[in-house]
Design goal:
The complex is a heterodimer of chains A (204) and B (320).
Chain A: H1 6-31, E1 35-45, H2 47-53, E2 61-71, E3 75-82, H3 83-94, H4 105-130, E4 134-136, E5 140-145, H5 146-150, E6 160-170, E7 173-183, H6 185-203
Antiparallel strand pairs in A: 1-6, 2-3, 2-4, 2-5, 3-7, 6-7
Chain B: H1 2-12, E1 16-20, E2 26-29, H2 31-37, H3 41-44, H4 49-52, H5 60-71, E3 75-77, H6 92-97, E4 103-110, E5 118-125, H7 127-146, H8 158-175, E6 179-186, H9 189-196, H10 198-215, E7 222-227, E8 230-236, H11 240-256, E9 272-279, H12 287-303, E10 309-311, H13 315-319
Parallel strand pairs in B: 9-10
Antiparallel strand pairs in B: 1-2, 1-5, 3-4, 4-5, 6-8, 6-9, 7-8
Helix pairs in contact in B: 9-10, 10-11
The chains are: A alpha+beta (204), B alpha+beta (320).
Chain lengths: 204, 320
Amino acid sequence: MFQLTELQHDALVEIFNLGVGRAAAAMSRIVGEEVTMSVPMITFQSRAEVAKTLGSNEGRRISAVAQHFDGAFSTEAFLMFPEDKSLEIVRLMVGQTMTVEELSEMEQEAMSEIGNIILNSCMGAFANAAGKELRGSLPTYLAGTGDVILGVSGKEWDGVVLTLKIDFNIERHHIYGYVAFLLDMPALQDLQRQIDDYLAKLMG
Amino acid sequence: MQLRLLQGVLEAVRAGIIVVDAEQRIVIWNQWMEQHSQLPAADIQGKTFGEVFPDMVDGRTHIAIRAALENNFASLLSQTLNKAPFPLYANAVDAISGTRMQQAVHVMPLEIDGLARHCVVQITDVSLAVSRERKLRELASELESQTLVDGLTGIANRRRFDLHLDDEFRRAKRNASPLSLIMIDVDYFKDYNDNYGHQRGDQCLVQIAATLGSVLNRSRDLVARYGGEEFTVILPDTNEDGAMQIAETMRAEIEGLQIEHGYSGVGKVVTVSLGVSTLVPEHLSKTGALIHAADRALYQAKRSGRNCVVMYTDARKKAE
């Protein structure tokens, strides 16, 4: 599987932590309480491996928010939580309790906004670091097993998935989620080149 | 021709359309916006977003506009997380009372060849969806209030407990038979939750509920979730000795589950404290007395070091 050098890896983790930090600040303003987020690790995996991590084999359902980005590189970006966790997040943010076991229409929209904030912040931090521009679409809400969600962009695909594990804290609840970027070979090369450019700039 | 057609569409569409240029000046303000803001386009055009909406400067919408103009990102502002950001009103009556329309806002960058970047803010009225959901929520909570089963553990809930206790109390009164109640509290459960997480905490409660239930075998005995980590057991036709025996069995069974609890003040596993009260209800007795007595006994059990059973004894009787 695709590997970054340790330096490239650390740079990327730093960039994404900056991004989710901004997203957390935006979310704190919305709920009027402290929300913190960090990215403890990033991995490169195949789509099947990511789906497995998300419990696809056991039929575990997840909620996802998807956005398309293109420009400096092209990618489908996903924010993913186990379905029950997305309920928890939205209801913690909205401050309402509903006994219904799936996200209602309005809650799906709220979840889309949360995904939009996080994905835009991650990509914004990356675009800033790279000094390049990325165009971001509006978010779409998806629910289903991980393989169905990640399979959305076509079956014949041999790229890799850049996955960020996101450690999310809201009102003393710890929730893990994932941000995933589908990267095909050209996108991966663009990404790597941009990290190198960023590092070169840092090193002066 | 095409342009006039597009203008017509812009005026006909049932959504607010605001177009903002690279300097954040409003260049398009459609008829829907005029109608619901009661601000004519002529007064708006050319002014910056901040001049028209000083209250929204640096708010979510403003940040989304900047993200579109500067970073080329689209944003969604949901009604649920953003309560009516724009001062828009469904009708003149609402405008007078200051009741804002429920809104969903989309902010999208516009890239048109030969033009500096603009962005379009689209506002939709979601009042209908909001009231539909409110109705749904009301129905769901109404339904919930009628249920008798605890959602997490599957045993009887507080409501079922109240109903069952009333029934058994009346029956005991009629037959002059003893009725016992056990109040059970999980020891150091907050520390369990804080350290192992809510999911493990929930699993722990499910296991405890099942174990408590397995101790009972008469059809009118009932174990219920009283609240949080509190359980309660109703034992009809059961005197002090019988109730103490069952309580002790329950205590031992829970300890025997050997659920690891590294943060308990009493041991290395999850344990419970139990308070027992027994009453032969008289004419004027109330269920509250039985519950209160079991509560007092539970409090004593907690004070006596937890992981134990305490029987309620009337202080006046003790003095005799």
